[in-house]
Amino acid sequence: MTSPPYSRVHDEVARRADGLWAVARALHADPETAFAEHRAAALLTGELERAGFEVRRNVADLPTAFTASSGHGRPAVALLLEYDALPGLGHACGHNLIAAAGLGAALVVDAVRDGAAGRVLAVGTPAEEGGGGKALQVRAGVFDDVDAALMFHPGVHDWARAPLTAQEQYRVAFHGRAAHPTGNPTEGVDALAALIELFNVLSALGRRLPEASHVQGIVTHGGTATNIVPDRAEGRFGLRAATTAALDELAARLRTSAQGVALATGTSVEVERASVRYEHFRDCEPLSERFAGHLSRAGITLTPPEPGVYLGSSDIGNVSGRVPAVHPFVAIMDSDGSDHTPEFAAAAASPRARRVLTAVVEALACTALDVLDDAGLRAEARSRHGDGPGLDAGG
C-alpha cells in the first residue's frame, strides 16, 4: 500500500471548485426528469471526455446512461452520478449536487494518480426517481468488475449511512361481469367492490406488519359510469419493507390477499409487478467510516441514523447488493426541512450546498483512493459486504 496523496487531493479540489459548482448550477437551472436527462448527460460526458476519460453512452440500453473510464483492470472504484429531477419541483432531491460530486471526485482521483494501476469509473445513473436506472445497470453487468461504488446524497441530516428500504409497485386488476344496477343487478359481478375489499383487507393487515413495512394503494380504474356494475377495476399498490427479503414476504401477502378476495367475490384477479424493484441499502461500514473520517476534516461530523427512521428507497440498494457501497447523507438545510419540496430545491443551489459539494468531492476522492491503494481495505470491504447494521445479508 502506498500513502494516498491526500494533500494533492485537497489542492486539486480547490482548483476545480468553481468549475464543479458551475456544473451543479447548470444542472439545477435546467432540470430534466427520469430517462429524459439528455442535456445533463451531454454536459457530464463532455467534461469527462475533455479530461481524457473513455466514455460509453447508451449503457444498459438506456439513452441517458453512461460510463466514463480512466485506467484499466482492477482494482476499480465507481463514482456514481445522479442527475434526474422531479416533475414540477426541479432538483428538489439535490441530484445536481450528486452529479457534480461524482464528476468532481472522478476527475480529481484521475488527476492525482499519475497513471497508477487500476481504474476509475464514473457511472451516469439516470432515473433514480422511480425509473431504477441503477437497477437496470446492475442487471446489465455494469458493476461486475468493480471493487466499490461510492456516492453521497444531500439531505437534512448528517448521517454516515442511508436507512433506505426496499420497495416496488404492483398492479392489481379484478375482473367481474357488467350489469345494470337496477335492471339486472343479480347478474353483475362487481369488480370495484372486490378492489375496495382488498383495500379493507390490506388495512387490517397493516396493523400486523413489522416496522418499516407498509402498503399504500390508489384506484387507477374504477368503472366507466354509475349505472353500470364495473366489470373491471384496477389499483396500483406501493410496497416498502426494511429489507428485500421482507419485501418479498409482503408481496406474497398482497398476492394471497388479492386471490382470497377474488375467491370471496366471484371475480378473477391479476397481480403483477409494475415497477423496477429497489432493494434495501446495505452499507459497507469500513468504507463509510473512511468517508466520514475524510469529511470530518471539513468540519462535518457524520453520525449513525436515528433508530426507527427510514428515508424512502433508492436504486443504490441494488448496487449495494452487488458490490460494497456507501451512500451517506450530508445536510444542505436544517433538520426541520425535507427533500422533495421547493425549499430543498432552493437549498440545492445555495451557498451551503456549495460548501458541502466541495467538502464531499474531497471526501469521496480520498475514499476512492483508499479503495484503489489499500488492498487490506478492499479485502475487509468484501468480507463485510452485506452485513450493514440492521440489514440482512441475503435479499
What layout of secondary structure does this protein have?
Elements: H1 6-29, H2 38-50, E1 54-57, E2 66-72, E3 76-81, H3 95-113, E4 118-124, H4 133-139, E5 148-150, E6 153-155, E7 166-175, H5 191-206, E8 214-221, E9 232-241, H6 244-265, E10 268-273, H7 285-296, H8 316-320, E11 325-326, E12 329-331, H9 342-347, H10 351-373, H11 375-383
Parallel strand pairs: 3-4, 3-5, 5-11, 6-12
Antiparallel strand pairs: 1-2, 2-4, 7-9, 7-10, 8-9
List keywords for this structure.
395 residues; alpha/beta; four-stranded antiparallel beta sheet; 11 helices; 12 strands; elongated; disordered C terminus
Q: Low-confidence segments, ≥5 residues, pLDDT <50?
A: 388-395
SSE order in H/E notation?
HHEEEHEHEEEHEEHEHHEEHHH
Rg (CA only):
23 Å
Structural class: alpha/beta
**Mean pLDDT level:** 95
Task: Walk across the major sheet and give the strand order.
Answer: 1-2-4-3-5-11
* Percent of residues in β-strands: 15-25%
Amino- and carboxy-terminal Cα gap: 34 Å
* Overall spatial form: elongated
Characterize the biggest β-sheet.
6 strands, mixed
Q: Oligomeric form of this entry? A: single chain
Number of E-state strands: 12
Number of helices: 11
Q: Helical residue percent?
A: 25-40%
